[in-house]
TrEMBL record:
Protein name, UniProt field: Pseudouridine synthase
A Pfam entry, by short name: S4
Catalytic residues as annotated in Swiss-Prot or TrEMBL: D147
Role according to the record: Responsible for synthesis of pseudouridine from uracil.
Domain of life (superkingdom): Bacteria
Family: Belongs to the pseudouridine synthase RluA family.
Domain RNA-binding S4 residue range list: 16-83
Enzyme Commission (EC) number: 5.4.99.-
Keyword RNA-binding assigned: yes
CDD domains in alphabetical order: PseudoU_synth_RluA_like, S4
Length: 337
């Protein structure tokens, strides 16, 4: 006969939502069933009623009623299809590895490789991470994103508790990100910040972002600091961007908003009758160059990614020196939303 059980929250589960905790431990229990158990007080944490979105803490005791633990619940669980892991995935990920320790991987994502699954996509970083699943069955976890056509630094947590800490750093903006880009024209002034609201809309080629007004439906504040590193007359410029917020396509939209769109941007390059310079590939020239993020176990993780081949080719053609020091952006990043 099934009985009431008590399960202790482990260190790896610290900060996990209660509904997700149940999904992992009792996959046969539907969300509707869980909500009913919560409403009737049959599921409790440390003897107290909580909501399904409550965050668990290490060493807390979760009361599990018989309904959640009977054989029927487990036998009716949908069978998870085992992901297909290509033997070459691990080798590929190791070939783009910039840094690793027992908690974190940092990769230099190539341009053109998606971070997550999407319509018509069969190859992406998230799927490839299955090949790095550890002996305890824990698959490394993404903690932030890069656009498909953007190259550069991508941080991945090796387990859940590390992912929670890193995600918090991104959310609380204690992370410093530096991007390099080649833009058409030269931003004026050469060092400043762009502060707008951005909102998503549906275009023929998929989702796009637009500059919006405060109060518009779905509008979110977006703040970017930038500085010009070098330029080719008034035709093109090497710009370093330091985003404070992390909105979708933020840097690409802000560059276009300044009337200096990023070279090779298929969505936001809006200059009519502009001839693509010879010797420069028609690819997005935006690269996540560097990241500085508090390490969950102390200190600061500071990783830099070399330019992708198409941008290195352009830099060589234009005579840009990658050893040049990034201009300091003196203005404080602040905590604006």
């Amino acid at each position: 006969m099934a009985t009431i059980q008590f399960r202790e929250v482990t260190g790896e589960e610290d900060g996990m939502r209660l509904d997700r905790w149940f999904k992992e431990h009792y996959p046969g229990l539907s969300f509707g069933q869980l909500q009913k158990l919560m409403r009737t007080g049959q599921v409790r944490v440390d003897g107290k009623r909580v909501k399904t979105n409550a965050r668990l803490q290490k060493a807390q005791q979760v009361r599990i009623p018989p309904l959640a633990t009977d054989e029927k619940s487990e036998s009716n669980a949908p069978k998870r299809a085992m992901p297909r892991v290509d033997d070459r995935d691990e080798d590929f990920l190791k070939s783009i590895l910039l840094y690793e320790d027992k908690d974190i991987f940092v990769f230099n994502k190539p341009a053109g490789l998606a971070v997550q699954a999407g319509s018509g996509l069969t190859r992406h970083v998230d799927g490839m991470l299955e090949s790095l699943t550890d002996k305890y069955g824990q698959k490394p976890r993404l903690v932030h994103r890069l656009d498909r056509d953007t190259s550069g630094v991508l941080v991945v947590a090796r387990r859940r508790s590390i992912a929670t800490a890193l995600t918090k750093a991104f959310r609380e903006r204690t992370t410093q990100k530096t991007y390099w880009a080649l833009v058409r024209g030269v931003p004026k002034p050469k060092q400043a910040r762009v502060s707008t609201y951005l909102a998503k809309y549906q275009a023929e080629d998929g989702d796009r972002m637009r500059v919006a007004k405060h109060g518009d439906n779905g509008a979110q504040h977006a703040l970017t600091h930038y500085a010009v590193v070098d330029q080719v007359g008034q035709k093109m410029a090497w710009v370093t961007f330091k985003p404070v917020t992390g909105r979708t396509h933020q840097l690409r939209v802000h560059a276009a908003y300044m009337e200096t769109p990023i070279i090779g941007d298929p969505k936001y390059f809006n200059v009519e009758n502009w001839e693509f310079p010879g010797g420069i590939q028609k690819k997005l020239h935006l690269h996540a160059r560097r990241i500085r993020i508090p390490h969950p176990n102390g200190g600061v993780l500071d990783v830099t990614a070399p330019l992708p081949p198409h941008m290195q080719q352009t830099w060589n053609l234009l005579g840009f020196d990658v050893t040049q020091y990034d201009p300091d952006i003196e203005e404080e990043l602040g905590n604006e939303d």
